[in-house]
Amino acid sequence: MAIDFTLAPEHEEIRRRVRAFVQETIIPAVEGFDDEEKVLSRDEYIRTIFGLREKAKAEGLWLPHMPKEWGGMGLGHVELAMVQSEAAKTRLGPWVFNCQAPDEGNMHTLLHWATDEQKEKYLKPLLKGHKMSCFAMTEPEVAGSDPTLIRTHAVKDGDEWVINGHKWFISNARRAAFAILIARTEPDMPEGARGANTAFLVDIPQEGWNDVREVETMHGSTGHSEIVITDLRIPDSQILGGRGNGHKLGQYRLGPARLAHCMRWISQAETALDMMVDRALNRYSHGSLLAEKQGIQWLIADSAMELYQCKLMVLHAASKIDKGEDFRTEVSMAKHFVANSLNRIVDRAIQVHGALGYSTDTPLAHMFQHARWARFADGADEIHQMRIAERTIAAYRATGSTNAATGGLPL
Question: Packing angle between helix 246-282 and helix 77-87, nearest 10 degrees?
């Protein structure tokens, strides 16, 4: 029987070590970071989190997503799911282990697409934790879910490219030492063509790259920048992955990155469910504990069932990535379902907490603000639904069955 939902003993040991490090080292060290009455100086904050990174390296809990020959833990995507979910029990957990977005996805991209010289200059500093990066694709003038519409354009001028355009929601741009920038290089190709874009490696800061502002979101200004690009000159050697491969490179990056988000969202959903049950067991109202009331039990039951589905979907999609199989439909399904489940589970937890949940005395209010972003990050709900439907119809046309579009499972 090939189906096995247990981890190998060595991977179970890694999960135990990650959980212990998060609970016993990271959480005590960062407690109070978000408390306005306990604001640390910038220097103290930086020393604390970089100190945690050094401890993670010493414990062998560094770069769980990267091959061992590149200084990582060499975990597959199934094993990575356990690390990401444990790390995300606290906001800074993934960053401490150096497996946070967008750097994690950029590391995978550079490992697969970069030349040896580019790996030396850009990948190695990311792996060491000495630099950070960003991925500049989304634009305000066109639908971010359709990169074939990108208007940022690059024109060849001798051995250089002159780039002009407008980007926004470029996460981490203000902290980044470089960007992977997607621009249109083939103006004669028709709209919708997938070979019109090229990826460029851009050192930041430099003339022509203008960081206009951090976009204020419903959870504050947290590093999503608007960038205006004006006559930015980039050498031909800074092309990443070959001319015309920008779309392919972007899709290669986004598939596993979407699933990594799901792994972290599962952790947040589980935290919310834990809080919901704890509140229900300790809050007395109208003659009994909340946990004894059927209406509250239904909220708990619905959340437990959804979380179970989330975990199964992520593990199955991760197993397909590890096997080198086509994982696009499964990752789209997981991304859509987990993002929506996160919103529903956190919302239920707030409801069970009543006014306390709506306040900022618990983390639920901030969790809910961040959760709403999940439904359009790395592809809006509707785009994933459209792709899932297209692949389901295609599967039926090809085989007379939709089985291949519902996981291809032996059921």
Answer: 50
